[in-house]
Design brief:
Shape: rod-shaped
Helix content: 10-25%
CATH architecture of the largest domain: Beta Barrel
Number of domains: 2
Structural class: mainly beta
């Protein structure tokens, strides 16, 4: 036997001896039945603990909205200024102040609206369940048409001069075409794509307010023939400016990484114009795109 044949035989014997030992060190997996035979089992599924959050609220966004608002206007004092102006320097106003007599009262009306919003979310405070802070501007156009209830007043008064005045006052008030915008700060908590938030800010708007009054005085000065005097007056104007504040709560829901839908409630209180306070409660739905 040659030297080469001796080496080849020795290597073969060594491989035969080592193979069972290696096989013995490997885990024995049970065979799993399958159609037509057996196969090794599939590895068990292990959840990825560090899975990425759904959605990211940081950055600029823009969207559109539809709304329904309940608008309330208190016209109780709306005729005060025009009556006082028309009766200024008269004994009637000085002694009986018809300008304080209430001719109109409060009115409320529901109205639909539409508009848009844009904002920026700029801070997260924690890695999970993050706090979102931001600033947002809103614009809304409403199709408001509101008419004040009118309760004419008639009184007979006697002046210090002895003259008897039969006074009657009628009035009217309308509010229409309310457009407004808000600039507000937001604070919310991100629940992995669900963002409940609250907000507060300033509100600026414009509306058409029309107040009219007519004061009619039939004066009987003793035995002389009665005389009739008519004192008309107006207040308010078209596109009268409004300003006030807005507060509310809402919920943004991420549908995709860049698209979200929204629902919210907002309360707006405007400062009185022509002695007429205006406030509104609104519910909104909307959708937006985040860049």
């Amino acid at each position: 036997m040659s030297k080469q044949q001796c080496v080849a035989g020795a290597v073969a014997v060594a491989l035969v001896a080592v193979t069972p030992a290696i096989a013995a060190d490997q885990p024995v997996l049970p065979l799993q039945p399958q159609l037509g035979g057996y196969a090794e089992p599939a590895p068990a599924f292990v959840p990825f603990v560090g899975a990425a959050r759904f959605g990211d609220w940081r950055g600029f966004y823009i969207g559109g909205l539809a709304s329904y608002s309940d608008v309330d206007a208190d016209f109780s004092n709306a005729t005060r200024a025009p009556i006082a102006a028309s009766l200024q320097q008269t004994q009637l106003e000085a002694q009986y102040a018809p300008s304080n007599w209430q001719v109109l009262s409060s009115a409320a009306s529901g109205t639909a609206g539409f508009g848009g919003f844009a904002g920026y979310n700029f801070e997260y405070l924690s890695p999970y369940g993050k706090v979102v802070l931001g600033v947002e501007g809103n614009y809304e156009h409403t199709m408001l048409s509101l008419v004040a209830p009118n309760a004419p007043i008639g009184r007979v008064v006697t002046l210090s001069s002895g003259a008897i005045n039969d006074v009657s006052i009628t009035g009217g008030g309308t509010l229409s075409g309310l457009d407004f915008g808000t600039l507000r700060g937001r604070a919310g908590w991100d629940f992995n794509g669900f963002l409940p938030y609250m907000f507060a800010g300033l509100a600026v708007g414009a509306t058409n307010l029309n107040i009219t009054e007519t004061t009619t005085v039939v004066q009987s000065p003793g035995t002389a023939q009665a005389a009739t005097f008519v004192f008309p007056g107006t207040a308010g104007k078209s596109s009268d400016w409004l300003w006030g504040y807005a507060v509310g709560v809402g919920l943004d829901v991420a549908v995709t990484q860049h698209f979200f839908v929204r629902g919210e409630y907002e309360y707006v209180q405007f400062q009185p114009i022509a002695n007429t306070p205006i406030n509104m409660n609104s519910v909104r739905v909307g959708a937006g795109f985040k860049f």
